[in-house]
Write a structure and sequence with these properties.
Helix content: 25-40%
GO molecular function: glycosyltransferase activity
CATH architecture of the largest domain: 3-Layer(aba) Sandwich
Number of domains: 2
Distance between the termini: 9 Å
Organism: Bacteroides cellulosilyticus CL02T12C19
CATH class of the largest domain: Alpha Beta
Strand content: 15-25%
GO biological process, one term: lipopolysaccharide biosynthetic process
Structural class: alpha/beta
Protein name: Glycosyl transferase family 1 domain-containing protein
Shape: globular
Keywords: Transferase
CATH topology of the largest domain: Rossmann fold
Length: about 400
């Protein structure tokens, strides 16, 4: 069985972790999609795009060589789209090159993880062999626009096999897009174990941060609920004056954050892209991570935190309760509930034994148990066999 796995940079954190295990069991080639707009996303941090258009070897990007510690170098390719818009001639030729390579590769399954843009519609020529992982069955409120809806609609009509990463949205997804139930499979996310390649890295940029802080990280969009967490920290600070919140990641919504953070020493803002070498250190030194989202599907933030067995406080939206099982891996609170958010943070900071129990449960389940990549990849291989 021969698999082509195609995915963009903004999902590279999950892909690297999954493929590290999957490539040890089945013949999988990894095709990482790069464009001028997604050079710094998730695990990938590229300063300047290679000018060559088309499918390249991973050696054409020295910044990606570090990932050959978890991905077979000879099965790692770059789909280097140098076009500057979704209908660019350069983009079309890039995906035509990819199509030819896939045809010549004689793959049994083409597994992709995000809808192709207009220039990539040519890829649906291979739809009979395709299966799509649907990371967002329904768009987040912060990017629910006509363009995103249109490319999703094309993908869901062109392809017949899908993998969802949470059970909560499965029935609605099938009904809304009028899909065959037997063609929609279930899988899940494991913890982002690839981060451990940075365990020996120490970044002096965070020298002034003492371990034990509360951490929120990732791109800060309007649906992430950061404003509710900031309000909750006011209450936490009154009860535990030593508590500190670190908010790390690029802010991508119109919120007057700088005015809010002024004269609040218990909140530390890092408003920029955080490379993984720094992110790993931030997570390692945190006490708990918080995802106060207003809507969600899954969360790569939670899976990054679980790579270091860090308990999480998450809101009761989308598939988050499946990931952060309440009172087992952390706490689940209602969205937009400032008091519940603050009380959960205070409880975990006060109860060291409870934190240790949650850490043990995460390690036992996500590293060794049913949520480990070993189990997830075995089930994925079964799905491949079924669609073949």
């Amino acid at each position: 069985m021969r698999i082509a796995y195609i995915s963009p940079t903004f999902l590279s954190d999950v892909d690297l972790s999954l493929l590290n295990d999957l490539q040890s069991k089945v013949d999988v080639d990894y095709y990482l999609q790069i464009s001028p707009f997604i050079l710094k996303n998730a695990a990938v941090c590229i300063n300047k795009q290679n000018v060559k258009n088309g499918v390249l070897d991973v050696s054409d990007y020295p910044e990606l060589e570090q990932f050959t510690r978890v991905i077979d170098k000879d099965k790692f390719y770059i789909v280097n789209d140098t076009g500057h818009h979704s209908y660019s001639i350069r983009s079309f030729f890039c995906y035509f090159h990819l199509l030819i390579k896939l045809l010549c590769g004689k793959y049994d399954v083409i597994h992709f993880t995000w809808p192709f843009t207009k220039a990539g519609y040519i890829m649906y020529f291979l739809r009979k062999k395709m299966i799509m992982t649907v990371h967002d069955p329904f768009p987040h409120s912060s990017n629910d626009d006509s363009y995103n809806r249109s490319v999703r609609k094309v993908a869901f009509r062109a392809v017949h096999n899908f993998i969802l990463l949470n059970l909560q949205q499965k029935e609605n997804f099938i009904d809304y897009y009028q899909l065959q139930k037997k063609k929609v499979f279930n899988s899940s996310l494991g913890c982002y174990s690839y981060l451990h390649i940075y365990d020996s890295t120490e970044n002096t940029y965070f020298e002034d941060l003492k371990p034990g802080y509360i951490l929120m990280f990732g791109n800060i969009l309007s649906h992430k609920g950061a404003d509710y967490l900031l309000e909750a920290m006011e209450l936490v600070h009154k009860t535990i004056p030593s508590a500190k919140l670190v908010v790390a990641g690029r802010w991508k919504w119109n919120y007057d954050k700088y005015d809010y953070f002024k004269n609040k020493s218990f909140i530390y803002l890092i408003d920029k892209f955080i490379p993984d070498s720094s992110l790993a250190q931030l997570i390692r030194n945190s006490s708990i991570c918080v995802t106060p989202y207003l809507d969600a599907t899954q969360s790569g933030v939670i899976m990054s935190a679980f790579a270091y067995n860090k308990p999480c406080i998450a809101t009761n939206v989308g598939g988050l309760p499946e990931m952060v099982v309440d009172k087992k891996f952390g706490k689940i609170v209602p969205p937009k509930n400032i008091d519940a958010l603050a009380n959960s943070i205070i409880e975990l900071l006060h109860d060291h034994n409870l934190l240790c129990d949650y850490k043990y449960n995460i390690k036992n389940e996500y590293e060794l148990g049913n949520k480990s990549w070993n189990i997830i990849s075995d089930k994925l291989i079964d799905i491949y066999k079924e669609i073949i």
